[in-house]
Every structure is written in structure tokens, then in C-alpha cells.
Amino acid sequence: MAEKPKKPSKLRARLPRGLVDRGPAEIAATRAMVEKIREVYERYGFEPVETPAFEYTDALGKFLPDQDRPNEGVFSLQDDDEQWISLRYDLTAPLARYVAENFDALPKPYRSYRFGWVFRNEKPGPGRFRQFMQFDADTVGAPTSAADAEMCMMAADTMQALGIPRGSYVVKVNNRKVLDGIREAQGIDSDAQWLTVMRAIDKADKFPIKDIIQLLGAGRWDGGEEGKGDFTKGAGLNQTQTDAIISFIGDKDAGASMQGADNQSTVANMRARVEGSKTGSDGVAELATIAELADAGGYGDCVKIDPSVVRGLEYYTGPVYEVELLLDTKDEKGRPVRFGSVGGGGRYDGLVSRFRGEPVPATGFSIGVSRLQAALTLIGQLGNKPQPGPVVVTVFGGDIAGYQKMVASLRQAGIRAELYLGNPKHSLGQQMKYADKRNSPCAIIQGSDEKQQGIVQIKDLILGAELASLEKDRDEYLKKQAEAQFSCKEDELVAKVREVLTRHGVNWS
């Protein structure tokens, strides 16, 4: 008996972990959001620049997102020249390379913005992806705190341009020099140990204070108990050092904090805390300047000095800042959501200097577009409904030249339109179902009778959907029924379609 032929094996379609597919509605929302951010950045005098997704790995140097896994925190490969190149993990390191390479040709200060995808070779989790979008603005060559203050004010303007009112966000500011003053006082000499301290403090808005204490000490089990979940090695500080750090950043669980009633009192508290450290005192003075300039610009109510802000990346050298959303909302399942930080940045005076061998001051701000978009969608500031699809011209018979002419006339008038290119034997009903799935505002119909008369039928699909919810014996139904499908001359097609689009406020921008 002959063996049955084996069925060809199918490749299983699957998405890699930590990545997401995006559809038309989400892409349209991103576009709208990015344009609002761009408008604010350009109002502040920043101009666009693009850098490639890949950089030489040694250009990233020690400034990788995961110090414990220097070859794993980024996605890397060798090119044909056996040079190691890596996908960018942020937009700042590539900018530093670009500025260094074009230093003499660029105006200083150099003000630029860029947006795009960045990549992290990290363990994915809820809200933590391996690819996400950022939108950055940076000033290179400005040494004073005025440049940092400007970044904070621009961050505030950006939030408001995106529909987040004052009082629903805060721009929190600290200074790494102040923290370095604490480091000096506590005798923490190891850079690797101090970076671990910084990353522990950076989690203070996500974890209870007891977890931060564990991360400053021996380490923390994700499951809350020894042996449960993954283990994160701590900084190994002694009790005195840990107490000094906690007393500075504040114990929110106990209600103890260096945070004062206003910026002036917070600065005063911090100044007293770092007394005797020149580095720390310099940092406090810079914070005082930022607070003064923010107040002068009318941003004193939303730019707040906050000793708990750290930022996890190693390359920050001075002021650091974060934008935190204060909105409490619920997700699609009714669970409470607090979004927290949606952007941040700081001063990185050493990053460009690595290439130049001379001091090059720089400061920048980055918005986490993907994270902020999720927040704006949830609070209703960004639409998550599909954009209107194209006008669909249906097809009858084998000769499609006349239908192609209709499509061309619509497109030449700036109207999105497509010719139905499915199975030529498909009925009108099947083509209309296609138009509904495409979210088309209207469809064009011309059978043989209409063609002989030189007319076309325009079917208003948006109005047709509304008719389904109306009682058929009502006057309103009869009126709308006449508007939902009507005839016009072929040479009136563009004008009549435009009337339908205008009636429903359809635009594809």
C-alpha cells in the first residue's frame, strides 16, 4: 500500500518576545502626538537631525544600559569588516558621536532634536519592551544651568501641548553632583558600586522603601522572599551608608523627606545636608538657579526640586530631571493605573568629550513616546479609533478602465481612493463588506445602467451605519436614507464625494 504523501510543514507565525505589532489606529495616534512634540521643540529653536539605528559598539563604550551585561544590554553583531556594531539603546549616545564627528561645522551651542526607535536587549515584562520610540532634544555647548532650566520648561510646554494640564504632571529635578556629595561623605569609592546605588534609588518611585534598602544592601528577591523569583544583587552598602542615602532621598512610607513646602525650602534642606562638600554645594547652587529661572518663566508651579530623582544611566554629570504624570486612571479591565515617569534627561558633560579629548558641555531631554502614548490613549487625549479608510470604487465586469479613471480623478483631487482589486467575480455585497472593513467613508458604484446614463452612485457608509440604529418608520430615517445613497453625474464625482467627507469631518492628516 502506497504511503500517503506528507503534508508540507507550516512555519509557525510568531512575534519575538518584547516586541509589538502596530496597526493603523496606533500609528496615526503616534503621528499626531509626534507632530505636537515637534512643534514645541521647534518653537524653542531646535532643528532636526537623524542618526542611524546602528553605531560602532565601542562608541557606546561603558555607557550601556546594563552594566552587569555589557555585551547583552544591547543587540550587537559583527559586520563584514569584523567590526562590532550595535543597535542604539537611546538617541543620546549616537548624537554625541555625530556632534564629535562634525564638531567644527556645527554652530555652538548646537540645538537639535530627533525621534525614532531604540532597542534594549533586556528581559521583557509588563510595559517593558525591547523596542520603543523616543523623542529627544539636546543642547551641546551650553555650560550653564540656564540650558537645563530651559529643558524643564520645554518639557512642561510639551505636556500641555499634548493635552495634559498643569497640576496633572510635574517636572522633577535633582543634581548628580548633590548625590556625589553624599557619596564623598560616605566614602563610597567604587564607581560600579555607586552606579548600583544610583539604579537602586532610581526605583524609589516603583518599589517600597524596604525594597530600596535591600537593593542598597545585599540584594533583593523579586518574589519578596529568599529563593522566590529572580535575585538582583545589591550595592553592598553598610547600614550607616544605607541610612544616609535613605535619609536624603526620603522615606515615603514613613513620610520623611528632604522635600520642602516649595523649591526654596527643598534647596535649603539639601544645602544643609551636603555642607562641607564642594561638589555637593555646587550641585545645590545649580538647582537653585534652575528653580529661580523656572519661577521667572512662569513654571514654578510645575518644575519641582526633588532629591529622589536620579536617572539610571551612568553618563549624567549634573542636573537630572523627570516628567511624571500625576493622573490616576484605570485600564481596560478597570484596574487602577499610575503611569509615573514618561520622560526625562539631564546634563552629560562627559559624553561628547570622550571623542574630543576636551570639555564639551551638553544637556538633553527625552520623551518615551511609546509609554506616553499609552497614557494619553487611556485618559482619552489620543484617539484609538481607526482612521478613515480610502473611498472604495467598486468594479463590475471585466473592463475596469472607466473605474480606474474615477480613482485617478479622486486621487488627483487629494482624496484617498482605491479601486477594488479583489476577485473580479465578487458581488457588490462582498465589495461593500470589504469597504466596511477598510473603514471607508463612502463607496462608488457604477453598473451598466449607470454607465450608459453617465452617472455614478455614491453610498455614504458612515450615514448608512447610523441608519441601522434608527427606527424605519421615522421621518429622520427617510431623510437620511435619501442622503445615504444618491446619484450624480460622472463629472460631479469629486465635488459630491468631497461633500460627503466634509459632512463627516473626514480628513486623513
From TrEMBL:
InterPro entries with a match to the protein in the record: aa-tRNA-synth_II, aa-tRNA-synth_II/BPL/LPL, Anticodon-bd, Anticodon-bd_dom_sf, His-tRNA-ligase, HisRS-like_core, HisRS/HisZ
Binding annotation for L-histidine: D90, L91, T92, R120, Q134, D138, R311, Y315, Y316
GO molecular function (one): histidine-tRNA ligase activity
Keyword Translocase: no
GO cellular component: cytoplasm
Record key words, sorted: Aminoacyl-tRNA synthetase, ATP-binding, Cytoplasm, Ligase, Nucleotide-binding, Protein biosynthesis
Biological process (GO), any one: histidyl-tRNA aminoacylation
Name of the gene this protein is made from: hisS
Protein name as catalogued: Histidine--tRNA ligase
This enzyme's EC code(s): 6.1.1.21
Domain of life, source organism: Bacteria
Record note on quaternary structure: Homodimer.
Compartments, record wording: Cytoplasm
Domain Aminoacyl-transfer RNA synthetases class-II family profile: 1-386
Key word Transcription regulation present: no
Native organism: Rhodopseudomonas pentothenatexigens
